[in-house]
Each structure stands twice: as C-alpha cells, then as structure tokens.
Specification:
The protein has 9 helices and 9 strands. The protein is an alpha/beta fold. The protein folds into 2 domains: 164 residues, P-loop containing nucleotide triphosphate hydrolases (Rossmann fold, 3-Layer(aba) Sandwich); 105 residues, 2-Layer Sandwich (GMP Synthetase, Chain A, domain 3), CATH 3.30.300.20. A hairpin with a 5-residue loop joins strand 7 and strand 8. The longest helix is centred in the last third of the chain and has 18 residues. The two termini are 36 Å apart. The structure holds guanosine-5'-triphosphate and magnesium ion.
Length: 298
C-alpha cells in the first residue's frame, strides 16, 4: 500500500430529484450516472470514482428514497437503504430551494437507524437566496446527525471544491480500490441502456418515463469502425407505446438521434442505433425483467 494512501466509500443519498446523480458526476468530473428532471431516474446504485494523488473516493449514487408502489421501486429503495450501512460516509442531499419536507425527514430517520457517519449537502443553492439557508442549517444541526453541513450547487459547481475537500478529509487510510483510470464499474451494456433510458426520461412526460425500461439486444462491431446497437424500449401499456413512437415516428426518432450522440461520445466511435418498442404489461412487478435491467430482486 502506498504510504499515506487513503481510500473510502461515500454514498450520495436523499429523496428523489434532489440532485444526487448531478453531484456525483460533478465530483467525479465525468458523466457516470444519468440525470433528468423526472424523479426516480436512478434505479440502482451506480459507482463513480474520484482519483487524486494519494486518495481515491468511491462515490455510490443511490436511487431516490420514496414511497414504493411497484416491486421495482421497493427494490430501488431497499438497495439505496442498504448502501447507507456499507459506506464510510453518507453525503445526504436535500434541495435547499425547497427546504426540508417529510421525504427528507424520512431519510434522516434512515440515517439514524443506519448509524452512519453523515454530512449534509444543501444542494441547488443557485435557486435560493443565501439567507434561506440559515434556518435549514439550524434545523439540520439540531438533528445531531451531521458532522458538517455544506451548501453547493451541483449544477453550477459552486462550492463543490469545498465539499470535495470535506469528504477527502474523512477518508480512512487504505490502498486504492479501483485501477487509476477507472471511473465506474458499470458494465458497458448497462451503461448503454442507461444512456438510452436517459433520453426517454428527458423527452417524454408524465407517467411515460416511469413505465419504461431499456433492454440491450445486441452490441457488435460493424464495418467501418461502426458499432451496431439494437435496443428495445419496454412500455407497460399500448397507449405509452403510442407516445414513445409519436406521430409519424417523431418521438422515436428524437430519442434515437440524441441517444446515438450520447453513445458515440461514450464509446468514442460512430454508432448505428436501432430502437424497438414493446409492450410488457406490469413489467415493474416482473422479477425476470427486473433482473435483466440490473435490479436483482431478492
Ligand atoms: N438548479 C439546479 N438544478 C439542479 C442542481 N442539481 C441537480 N439539478 C437538477 O435537478 C434535476 C434532478 O437531478 P438528478 O441529479 O437527476 O437528481 P437525483 O437526486 O439523482 O434524482 P433521482 O435519481 O430521481 O433520485 C435535474 O433536472 C438536474 O439538472 C443544482 O444544483 N441546481
Ligand atoms: Mg439520480
């Protein structure tokens, strides 16, 4: 072990949509986890690794903690809660522009039960006046749960250096866990599915994002250095299939074009992407399918 080397695991936790994935990408300095304005975007823990001389921090972006209505969501919340007990530090996030609500207090209760070391991140400070932070800092201090309270904007990067320094200071001694150039351990197929799903989440509305999943059917090198990808978007109703395809196939085309750009950037080569839409009723309660999309139902 290199002398003075430190390495630790840090969970990013909180209710849905507070900016956990945006913050992880900011701290790691690369796009590792997908982001959208739709709550419950992240469906399973995603690891992102920060490398500094003598220091490695393995961040674990977790699904937003929420009231589950389907087996899929039960599993999302179970995985997120389990991570709290497995890490050296929990960075709990709240949306500072909204203040604390019952969802945040529920997360605080989980932290208390997990007996984790915690710090509190007041995110989205770009959306609120500084004086609104004081009552939040006050209330958070009174819980006795947090070693530090750090206001940041994951979107603009404001104060994220300070957050990084606070986190780094708490990391235990130990050798690096991941090789130097590894930013995530997400398997390539799953990363591809996530990038396509991100476009579905960003381009559709209401219930459609929540009722879709993406399955990768094929990834293979083709002539001219091209990578051929076949993927199926699963919907749970005919009507959602209709929305996903759109008038004259317009929605499918929009999702396909932006997903292809994202995939080309991620894979560093040209991509030929074919997308299909299939209806599979009640897939969110289907163990087989959940396993296929990376949610190992116990
Ligand atoms: N203005 C502002 N928006 C932010 C900030 N951080 C995240 N967002 C936005 O908030 C929305 C949710 O961000 P995500 O990073 O997907 O949130 P999350 O906590 O990972 O959400 P789930 O995975 O659904 O639990 C997106 O539209 C982000 O662009 C911030 O600091 N400021
Ligand atoms: Mg997320």
């Amino acid at each position: 072990m290199p002398e003075g080397s430190r390495c630790g695991f840090v969970a990013l936790a909180g209710r849905a949509n507070v900016g956990k994935s945006t913050l992880m990408n900011r701290l790691v300095g690369a796009k590792v986890s997908i982001v959208s304005e739709v709550p419950q975007t992240t469906r399973f823990p995603v690891r992102g690794v920060l490398h500094r001389p003598g220091l490695q921090v393995v961040f674990i972006d977790t699904p937003g903690i929420h009231k589950p209505r389907y087996r899929m969501n039960e599993e999302m919340v179970r995985l997120a809660t389990r991570v709290l007990r497995e890490v050296d530090l929990v960075a709990a996030l709240v949306d500072a522009s909204e203040g604390f609500g019952p969802g945040d207090r529920f997360v605080f209760d989980l932290l208390r039960q997990a007996r984790s070391r915690n710090l509190l991140v007041l995110n989205k400070v770009d959306l609120t006046a500084k004086e609104n932070l004081l009552p939040l800092i006050d209330e958070a201090s009174r819980t006795g749960l947090f070693e530090e309270i750090v206001p940041v904007s994951a979107l603009t990067g404001e104060n994220s250096d300070r957050l990084q320094a606070v986190i780094a200071a708490t990391m235990p001694a130990g050798p690096p866990h991941f090789p130097e150039d590894m930013l995530t351990d997400l398997p390539q197929r799953q990363a591809i599915a996530e990038l396509i799903r991100e476009q579905v989440f960003q381009q559709t509305r209401q219930e459609v994002p929540h009722s879709t999943a993406v399955i990768i059917d094929l990834v293979e090198p083709a002539e001219g250095g091209l990578i051929r990808i076949h993927a199926t978007i699963i919907a749970d109703k005919e009507s959602q299939k209709g929305i996903l395809i759109g008038e004259g196939g317009r929605m499918m085309k929009g999702i396909g074009t932006s997903a292809r750009h994202q995939l080309e950037e991620y894979l560093g080569s040209r991509v030929h992407l074919s997308l299909w839409v299939k209806v599979k009723r009640a897939w969110r309660d289907d163990r087989e399918l959940l396993r296929l999309i990376g949610l190992p139902v116990s």
